[in-house]
Amino acid sequence: MALESAPSPLDEKTKRTRDLLASFYNAASGATAGGSNSSSGRALPVDSINSPNFDPDVYMSVIVQKENLDGLLHNHVEMAAEIKNLDTDLQMLVYENYNKFISVTDTIKRMKSNIIGMEENMKQLLDKITSVQSKSDIVNTSLFEKREHIEKLHQTRNLLRKVQFIYDLPARLGKCIKAEAYADAVRYFTGAKPIFEAYGDSSFQDCKRASEEAIDIVIHNLQSKLSSESEPIEARADAVVLLKKLNFPVDNLKSKLLEKFEDCLLKFHNESKEIELSESDGLPKASIREFSKTVHAYLIIFPDSESRLIRLAQDFFIKRYGIIQQQIKKGISAAHLLLMLRDIWEDVNIMVEVLPEATLLFQIVEAASGICKQYILAAFSNLLQEISELFKTHSRPTEQSEESPLHIALESSKKAILQGSMNMLVEFRQLLDDNLELLVNLRDLIREWVQEGFQYFFQKLDQNFFILSRSGRPSTTESSLNDLVYTERVRTGLVLVLAQLSVYIEQVVIPRVTEEIATSFSGGGVRAYDHGPAFVPGEFCRLFHSAGEKFLHLYVSMKSQNISIILKKRFTTPIWIKHKEPREVNMFVDLLLQELDGLLAEVRQVLQHGLLRRHHRSDSNGSTNSSRSNPMHEDKLGRSNTQRVKSQFLESHLAKLFEQKMEIFTKVEYTQESVVSTVVKLCLKSLQEFVRLQTLNRSGYQQIQLDVEFLKNPLKQYVDDEAATNFLLKEVINAAHERCLDPIPLELPILDKLINAKLNKRQGSEIKFLPSN
Amino acid sequence: MQGGSTGIVYGGLKYQARCIADVCADPDNTSFLAGTLSLKEENEVHLIRVSPSGTELVCEGLFYHPNEIWDLKSCPFDSRIFSTVFTSGETYGASIWEIPELYGQSNSPQLEKLFSLQELSSKIKCVLWWPRGKHDKLISIDEGNIFLWSIDSSNKTAKVISQESIGMLHSLSGGSWDPHDRNAVATICDSSLQCWDLRTMKKTTSIDNIHFRDVDYNPKMQHIIVTADDEFGIRIWDIRKPKFHLDEFPGHVHWTWAVRYNPEYDGLILTAGTDSAVNLWLASPAGSNDSIPESLSDYAARQNDPLLHSYNDYEDSVYGVAWSCREPSIFASLSYDGRVVVESVKSFLQTPKEPF
Asked: Where are the WD-type repeats located (chain B) (predicted)?
């Protein structure tokens, strides 16, 4: 209030007055006014007339000092006017206050008189209200009975309406059936059902029967609707819901339907199997879409049948995998397998669209890996089978129509193994390179399987070779002797083929396969770190290396055994101590040379020539040997003096000491020469041993001398180690010499004559035995 | 292996020789008997003793023997008695000899012939003693027959108890007497191995169609035998199951002539061959391999080389080989040139025997 008045100079006076008045009425507001005025109060110090701590003396002294007379006069006038104003204002205020007081007193007086009349009115009002209430109660009681009656009537009416409904139900249902509004029919029937249950046996019997018949029709219709394929799926699903509402055993229906579906699948499967047998292009294009549609439908119709459907689908696919597996057993190409896998992958994907279940995908991945593994293993075992078949046909004694059956056997089996492995790798690469999603995941596994497969393959191959070489052993249990000799010949050849084949595998096949694996099948890293790579070529190189040597040794020993049998017959049959004078070279040499020819023929087919005469060193060694011992030998031959026999033993003993020990049994190599000379050496050693077991008379000694002298020349054609053969021949003579009671050798002219006679005879009649070179 | 001769050599035999036998009845000395094979000279039997230090071979006695010796066996219960089989030209014979008391003078006293095994119709091949101690029976095998003799060394008599002829088709070449069973003996011929029951003189089993050169019973395990043949080399059989062999080793480059089980260390086998070598084998314990034919057994087993060592520092074929019963880790071998070599196999016994 006082604050709001802007301190314009004109209002200065009224403002001050108001302030004063305000302070008069309200000390608090005055305080605030004072506070707010403190700024002006400060501006107006003690001499300011408006400030509360105004000091008139100071004011006076200030004014007196500051103003001149005029000013003082002016101030005086002003001040007098102000005082006058103030006085009037005060008067005015007092007056106003008084007026107000008067009017208040009047008002109070009037109120007092008004209140006295009101109390009576109130009492009247209460009376009236109580009378109204009692009257309304009376009305109420008089109307109550009537109202109850009305209510009863209403209930009866409702009941009658329901009865009407039930009586109408059959007709209504019939109408619904006609209109195919089965949902309404079911709703009506279920509505009426409690009544039927309650009173069905008495009052509503007919009605109930009729409506039940109608409902039966409804059920029947619904069923047919459900099973008909032509209906839209939603309608069929609705039908199921309705049937369920009617407490119809839907589950039975469901299982029946699913069984039908199953049968259908089975039939399809059987059909496709038959088709598969006749055609070879992929799996039969299954009407998988239809199936998936059906499955979809059933899934909607019977929401709770999912697991069953999944099982059905699983069974279905398992059967299809079975088809593939059967195909693999029959042997199919990788392309074909891929085709089938692709088909089935598509099928599964279609199925998965409607049956969004991980199990199917999981299942196919599993099945595919099984199939691939089986395929790879089957491929390997097929190859094995092929190879062993090859050997079987070759080991069977066929008519000797072919020039060199062993050569053919070797080449064909070489080809079979290398080509077979390479082809197999090509096939596997197809599997690996295919971008079918299914197979991409399996790549690592496929690589591993291929490696494992080779591991298995070579192991088996080695075992097969081993068994083959075993079965190739001549077993004397076989029926006729002729047959025995014949099969034996073919089979010993087979052992040689196996030896050479082992070398081939070691030196060519395994490196090739290793190379191939390294380029495209390496890094099947699934187990590489735990167990090392699945395929260990080094191991097999060693294995086949030793197998090759084993077979070569076996061949050599089998061959030398055959010869040993000839020698044995020769040396055990005659009574040497009563031998007659030698007339000609014994015919066993023919047999021996014939056997060697046979050996040479086999060896030539399979093995290679030695690049050069490998025994150069031992050759020269041997020649010095022979040159050293030859004169002694001649000496011995020429000597006919029996008295010196004893010293001869010592001599030969001494000579042996000085001679370098002859390395008779050197390592067998994969060359024609090495094998043949080893056999020759072994059989000469046997000859020596046979002689040592006999006791000879002079003629026996001479006979052996003659035979050995004769053998000297023909044997040269077979061997590359002449020194050793000469040494051994000499040893035979020595042995005969030792075992002779009267060792007088044949005279040289007679010896020559007999040898020449034999040579002529052989050249005349048996020229074919001589190696053609 | 060349020149790595560790054996002790005895060069006292002047002539060729085939036979060497361990004198197993002598408990005090390790000694061997060796007989020479000379058609025209006077043959000798050497009693060779390994010196107590084990570093040299001493000729303990040298006895003249009238004929060349094809077989020589020492009596298992009397160290002074031994048997020989000999020929001279056309005649064959077998005798039991007693070494006379030596009384220091070692120079060729006469052997005392206890008795000779008469009634020999054809070429006698060998005489067998029962290998395990005292037994009053002897077996002689000739080409066509097997004889069981009852001997009485004090009365110097021997008579045939029973005999069995094998038939014309085969000719026997040797045999071995089962150390586990006095009534069982195995004989070998051209094409088969037969086991005989001496009580009935009937064949019990046979392994057919193989030409065996030698046979020996396993002294540690009954029914187990080792054979040497040309076709497969060395094979081990259970004679109760003659169809399949238990194990086989490749044998020698040329013929495997003799095969002997070690009397003490099971599975240790010594073979001598005409390729001038003696091989020492270790058979894997029988039973670990069962009777699976070898072709089916796994690789590891096949690659595990059973050949422990090959002694090939010989000049000529080795026909005679004998373990010492007294010191089972040493053996004597005799090559045709008359050299006796005694070797110790101790260094091979240290190799772990348990399957790895």
From this structure: 249-281
The 3-class SS string of A514-557 reads HHHHHHHCCCCCCCHHHHCCCCCHHHHHHHHHHHHHHHHHHHHH
Q: Which domains are seen in chain B, by residue range?
A: 2-349 (2.130.10.10)
Nearest to A314 by CA among A268, A272, A354, A362: A362
Min CA distance, B246 vs chain A (Å)?
16
The structure tokens listed for B355 are 């399957």
Q: Sort out which chain A residues have CB atoms less than 8 A from B303's CB and list them.
A: 546
CA of A489 vs chain B CAs: smallest distance (Å): 16
CA distance B132 to A320: 73
> What are A596-631's pLDDT values in tens digits?
888 888 888 877 776 544 443 333 333 333 333 333
Q: Which tens digits make up the pLDDT trace of A622-645? A: 333 333 333 343 344 433 443 444
pLDDT band at A85 (very low <50, low <70, confident <90, very high): very high
Subunit contact A695:B274, Cβ cutoff 8 A: no
- Assess A646–B contact: CB distance below 8 Å, yes or no: yes
pLDDT, tens digit (0-9, with 9 covering 90-100), for A477-487: 333 344 444 44
DSSP state at residue A50: S
**Interface residue B143 vs chain A (CB under 8 A):** no
B53 touches chain A (CB under 8 A): no
**In this complex, which of B15, B89, B275 lies closest to A695 when CB atoms are compared?**
B89
Tell me chain A's radius of gyration from C-alpha atoms. Answer: 67
B231 at A interface, C-beta within 8 A: yes
From the list B87, B253, B317, which residue is nearest A695 (CB)? B87
Choose among B39, B299, B315: nearest Cβ to A695.
B39
Position A34 pLDDT exceeds 50: no
Which one-letter amino acid corresponds to residue A613? Answer: R
Q: Model ipTM?
A: 0.86
Q: Is the pTM of this model over 0.80?
A: no
Instruction: Place B258 in a pLDDT band, splitting at 50, 70 and 90.
Output: very high
Average pLDDT, chain B: 81
Q: Sign of the C-alpha dihedral, residues A346, A351, A354, A358? A: negative
Given an 8 Å threshold on Cβ–Cβ distance, is A561 in contact with B231?
yes
Q: Which residue has the higher pLDDT, B112 or A26?
A: B112
